[in-house]
Automatic annotation (TrEMBL), chain A:
Gene3D superfamilies: Nucleotide-binding domain of ferredoxin-NADP reductase (FNR) module. Signal peptide: none annotated. It comes from the Bacteria. It comes from Ornithinimicrobium pekingense. The lineage of its organism: Bacteria, Bacillati, Actinomycetota, Actinomycetes, Micrococcales. This is Dihydroorotate dehydrogenase electron transfer subunit iron-sulphur cluster binding domain-containing protein.
Automatic annotation (TrEMBL), chain B:
InterPro entries: Aldolase_TIM (IPR013785). This is Dihydroorotate dehydrogenase. Residues 276-288 have a biased composition (Polar residues). It comes from the Bacteria. Residues 267-288 are annotated as: Disordered.
Length: 268, 288
């Protein structure tokens, strides 16, 4: 895989983020891109920076007439400008799988870590899935591009981080929502909580187990292993009592993983 | 064995601390001709997989990080097996507190089925004095097959750099890896493009010492601050025969292939009569 030279074509403010659209010359890597995948923006050592920027892919659209474009949600502080050339490595990792049938789904996210959900809600809506979104953030500005989410989701619920567990239980038990699948993105402790609640109700969970806002992500490509995570699946078939967990490298083996891996003893 | 070693060094090597799982690199491009870093392996360690890197702080031009954590011989064998099935070779990195530990690891790996995939053995001797370097390399030389390429990793900041390089070659090293990493404490290092000057200074010191016949000379590997083709060519100009990439791959993994092509183009061709620790520019500048 070689990097793609992309050009910023539009920058739109959305709270603490900028929704940045880039055109890419070669559409082929992006045809099968999915929500939950990553892109890395390599750095030039001459600038004194030694680590790349790692971002969630917030959209990829391939059009035979207009070419391919990629959306990213970048922090406002980055001051991205139209016309800027950005080298992209990606799409990296394993994204969210869409359900095979149009079933109701619940998306749960926290702050800027919920970026993959922004595109996922669009993909699920196109497949005919009724989507409910539950977001938490400590600051209203950190809620993600709500206009976009409200356009595609049946309901968008906002909660403070401390209220999220109770709100999640209420939504899971709400017959009006009645989710059949739960997708989650955000800090790992939140994902573990979401997975526990959903698995207790027998719902499948898929979680993007990488917190790009946290200190753990260094390279985004799976080389450094700073994002290594202990999961409760030893990769030897159905889980049995007494088996030890293993170390998962989300940048390499994920970032989207089954919720069962994140909880100690899934209730079934 | 000649001073150049049993076979030419690959133009690019990979730092074991920066590539804790080579499978991540393999999905980004072709690794043929590039030894996959395996380890660091220490006798008595039972860790089945290299844990992730620990970065304490990121600064201008570098980062403060822990040394790579050692893994078991079984973990090294598994990775070598993975490399062998893809037609790749590995560079086994060994560490140890005693010469017996180092030799035991090398013997165990070479006796295993995966031993044939070992293209080179790198012995981490940063911080060791010259007598220790001599004992360690001698013991590893005995344990390794005769045609095995042995690399001794020494620190460019070591005041006894030339003595350590001399001891490494006397002990059987076929190349010397000049590490530009700056020691910040026990098992803690500063790496990044800002260490290029340290590495280049080490290369220069060894090149001058070889010209003055203070050590017999051996191919040098520049390991520190190589974050692009320009830095790699600077290292070649200072006498390096190949370069080792580390944290540069975190910033941009594709630099591996651009540096490999640049180094391959910048190296003297086979048959050129250039001493291993002297560059062509120096030959032109030095008085006869």
């Amino acid at each position: 895989m070689v990097g793609t030279e992309a050009v910023v074509t539009s920058v739109r403010a959305a709270g603490a983020h900028d929704v940045v659209s880039l055109t890419v010359p070669d559409a082929s890597p992006w045809v099968h891109a999915r929500p939950g995948q990553l892109v890395a923006v390599p750095t030039d050592p001459a600038t004194g920076r030694v680590l790349p920027e790692v971002h969630w892919l917030a959209g990829a659209h391939v059009d035979p007439v207009h070419g391919a474009s990629v959306d990213l949600l970048l922090p406002v502080q980055r001051q991205t400008a139209t016309g800027e050339r950005v080298r992209l490595l990606g799409p990296l990792g394993r994204g969210f799988p869409a359900p095979s049938a149009p079933v109701p789904v619940l998306l749960v996210g926290h702050g800027g870590g919920a970026v993959p959900l922004r595109w996922l809600v669009e993909v699920l809506r196109d497949r005919g899935c009724p989507v409910h979104v539950l977001l938490s953030a400590s600051d209203p500005d950190l809620h993600l591009d709500l206009v976009h989410l409200r356009r595609h989701a049946r309901a968008v619920l906002l909660a403070l981080p401390e209220d999220l567990p109770a709100t999640l239980r209420r939504v899971l038990d709400d017959p009006a929502a009645d989710p059949a699948v739960v997708y989650a993105a955000g800090p790992v402790p939140l994902l573990r909580g979401v997975a526990e609640e959903a698995l207790r109700r027998g719902l499948p969970v898929r979680a993007a187990a990488l917190d790009l806002d946290g200190p753990a992500v260094v390279c985004g490509t799976g080389l450094c292993g700073a994002c290594d995570l202990l999961v409760h699946d030893d990769g030897r078939g159905p889980r049995q009592a007494g088996r030890a967990g293993r170390v998962l490298r989300p940048c390499l083996e994920g970032p989207v993983v089954p919720g069962e891996w994140l909880v100690e003893e899934p209730a079934r | 064995m000649s001073a150049r070693g049993p076979a030419p060094l690959p133009p690019v090597l990979l730092g074991v601390g920066a590539v804790s799982d080579p499978r991540a690199l393999a999905r980004l491009g072709d690794l043929s001709g590039i030894p996959v870093p395996v380890g660091p392996v220490e006798a008595g360690v039972r860790r089945a997989r290299a844990p992730g890197s620990v970065v304490h702080r990121v600064g201008v031009g570098g980062l403060d990080h822990d040394d790579a954590t050692a893994v078991s011989v079984d973990a090294a064998r598994e990775l070598l097996g993975w490399a062998a099935t893809r037609g790749l070779g590995g560079c086994l990195v060994v560490r140890g507190t005693t010469t017996g530990d180092l030799a035991a690891v090398v013997e165990q790996v070479h006796r295993s089925l995966e031993g044939d995939a070992v293209m080179a053995v790198e012995v981490d001797l940063r911080g060791a004095d010259d007598q220790t370097v001599l004992r360690c390399m001698s013991r590893v030389r005995e344990a390794a097959p005769r045609d095995q390429r042995l690399l001794a990793r020494v620190s460019a900041t070591d005041p006894a750099l030339v003595a350590c390089a001399r001891a490494a070659v006397a002990g059987g090293a076929s190349a010397v890896v000049v590490s530009g990493q700056v020691r910040l404490g026990p098992r803690r290092w500063w790496s990044g493009p800002s260490t290029a000057a340290v590495c280049l200074a080490g290369l220069r010191a060894l090149r001058v010492a070889a010209a003055e016949q203070r050590w017999p000379g051996a191919p040098l590997v520049a390991a520190g601050g190589v974050h692009g083709p320009a830095a790699a060519l600077d290292a070649l100009a200072e006498g390096a025969a190949s370069v080792q990439l580390g944290s540069a791959l975190w910033a941009d993994p594709s630099v591996l292939w651009t540096v490999r092509d640049a180094v391959a183009a910048g190296l003297p061709r086979a048959g050129d009569d250039v001493p291993p620790t002297q560059s062509r520019t120096d030959l032109a500048q030095e008085p006869s």
